[in-house]
Amino acid sequence: MDLPDDATARRAREIAGAHAGRDGALLPILHDLQAEFGHIPEAARPEIADAVNISAAELHGVISFYTDFRTAPAGRRSLRLCRAEACQAMGGAALWREVLAGLGLDEFGTTPDGRLTVEPVYCLGLCACAPAAMLDGEPLGRVTADRLSAALAGAAPC
Amino acid sequence: MLRLFLPRDAAALALGAEDVARAITAEAARRGVEVTLVRTGSRGMIWLEPLLEVERDGIRQGFGPVTPADIPALFEAGFDDHPSALGPVEDIPFLARQTRLTFARCGVTDPFDLDAYRAHGGLAGLDRARAMTPAEIVQEVTDSGLRGRGGAGFPTGVKWRTVLEARGPRKYIVCNADEGDSGSFADRMLMEGDPFALIEGMAIAARAVGADRGYVYIRSEYPHAIAAMERAAGIARAAGLLGAAARGSGAAFDIEIRVGAGAYVCGEETSLLNSIEGRRGEVRAKPPLPAHKGLFGRPTAVNNVLTLAAVPAILAQGAAAYARFGLGRSRGTIPIQIAGNARRAGLFETGFGLSLGEIVEEIAGGTASGRPVKAVQVGGPLGAYFPPALFDTPFGYEEFDGAGGLIGHAGITVFDDTADMGALARFAFEFCAEESCGKCTPCRIGAVRGAEAVDRLCAGDTGALPLLGDLCETMRAASLCALGGFTPYPVESALRHFPEEFGLGRAAAE
Ligand SMILES: Cc1cc2nc3c(=O)[nH]c(=O)nc-3n(C[C@H](O)[C@H](O)[C@H](O)COP(=O)(O)O)c2cc1C
Ligand code: SF4
Ligand code: FES
């Protein structure tokens, strides 16, 4: 979602307000913000810091600590490839190299057309059907290059 | 009326269960047959997923793995004779050989059907606990010998007693559902397949220690488990199991689901508490123990999902019935998770004491690739690699410690002979560097240096060996938590058991 800064700030205030009175509300607020904006917008930060009564520096410290929180928007679709041991045991490392190359990527990141962000993940709890991946939140097990292409060709969620 | 059962567990979905469900609905409509399709958790036989079951004469007959293309033929055959037929599910050796106490209902019932939960033994533990004093509940759990299933193996009764005896206007139960260890998925399966068991366990824990609030901290990588727990908590609240005056017992207890944000270290209990409080997930120095000063500075019992989910059965059947299973000081059952390159990968709950070899060779049936087993990593990314030479090690806390490893969250990742032990040792350091909370130098910097040292060693520079030894020693001795402190386990075990893969003779690696 793209809004002018003042509208973003207003929306951030509303989101934070929905958690008023909740103990330790910061992570839930950040999750909600990211669900709506796709990242944590700069213009939302003062509102959030104010709502949970911490400094801008402290807020930055929290956002930067957690890999889930983005500071810039990602691609329209999200593909997460498991790099952890059980997936390595089933050939994950080589397969992921092949997948990235097939997408024209040298490393994890977003395709130049902004269509897809490919990120590493350390275990999806699908270790008994490795190698595993997650595409737009949907789990994929015993992934092969073909199965993944088919899934990527499927309709993207709106 | 045809009663069918199909898992909605994330692993079943990952293998196409939703397409199978759609095919069933479509085929039933086409034939005008009335079908009840019950969506369950998974039985844990992941190599058979999607595993479809039909109930006939009170017996559940299995078919798996099934694809949407099999569905018309299955209807045609009246769900009888079909190439995917497995016979009665509970007679499948992998399942028949288990002792399912914690996972008794997983894969059997609809996870959101509270009546089915009760009909299958649920809530009997809480009912009994309600007639007991807090001290009696703690004693029962102590007598069962239950130890923390999150990795450290700390006696649960001792932890609960500390919280019970701690003074404070408010106490908390925190369920650690961060399950970051690769090779493990039991917490996920339980939350998706039998969430009321966890809620019941938390309610019993709350009574035992005098807590009125609980949190379940679930990693964000588990969207299905998060949704299942949210839904189950809502149902439990509506039924009066949670909320202001839970089940008329007068004791208020409610839980809140919290979602992690992609940090492995947040599985460490004090880091997890910081995360719930809305801070960076940095590890806290102990003391104070969370049992004394935990969440928001209040007495807190932090327990793993499996620890809490074991409690209802312990209360329902009695401490002795639980402690009857096991080996030495490892009492009761352990849900072992067989992962990676295994022919029969999945969840196997059994009393402690099987040998690693029995698990890998007999139960898992060796590798999926059909090649020889080279190594298994037990206990997640901080666990040691075991070569077949150590397969006589019995599955127990002390026994694994004695063999230079740990059981951790009981995930077993199997590797065939194509595994590159040098790359795996390097990965252990890489992972530690990536996930370090940054508080201690040996972990933050040592892990980066360690990865470089492994590279040098594998490139033929044996001069890197003493450096590697020093790094591991420093990390072990000077790390605040097990992320830095235990990373030497996978590294040194790989080096010790597979020196030739690092260009070394056996003697050099010792
Ligand atoms: C780096 C690190 C990660 C951990 N991850 C988890 C985890 O994901 N789940 C868990 O239950 N315990 C984890 N633990 C162990 C917890 O600190 C703690 O011992 C456990 O939650 C206590 O519950 P239990 O006594 O029921 O096992 C981790 C520990 C460390 C050092
Ligand atoms: S060992 Fe690593 S993760 Fe643990 S407290 Fe120290 S820096 Fe943090
Ligand atoms: S190791 Fe890849 S899903 Fe667990």
Automatic annotation (TrEMBL), chain A:
Protein species of origin: Rhodovulum iodosum
Keywords for the protein's UniProt record, in alphabetical order: 2Fe-2S, Iron, Iron-sulfur, Metal-binding
Keyword Iron-sulfur: yes
Cofactor(s) required for function per UniProt: [2Fe-2S] cluster
Coiled-coil residue windows: none
Gene3D superfamilies linked to this entry: Glutaredoxin (3.40.30.10), NADH-quinone oxidoreductase subunit E (1.10.10.1590)
Name of the protein in question: Formate dehydrogenase subunit gamma
Family classification: Belongs to the complex I 24 kDa subunit family.
Keyword check for Ribosomal protein: no
TrEMBL record, chain B:
Coiled coil (residue ranges): none
Lineage: Bacteria, Pseudomonadati, Pseudomonadota, Alphaproteobacteria, Rhodobacterales
InterPro entries, sorted: NADH-UbQ_OxRdtase_51kDa_CS, Nuo51_FMN-bd, Nuo51_FMN-bd_sf, Nuop51_4Fe4S-bd, Nuop51_4Fe4S-bd_sf, Thioredoxin-like_sf
Family to which the UniProt record says this protein belongs: Belongs to the complex I 51 kDa subunit family.
Cofactor annotation: FMN
Keywords noted in UniProt: 4Fe-4S, Iron, Iron-sulfur, Metal-binding
Protein name: Formate dehydrogenase iron-sulfur subunit
Matches recorded under CDD domains: TRX_Fd_FDH_beta (cd03063)
Residue span, NADH-ubiquinone oxidoreductase 51kDa subunit iron-sulphur binding domain: 422-467
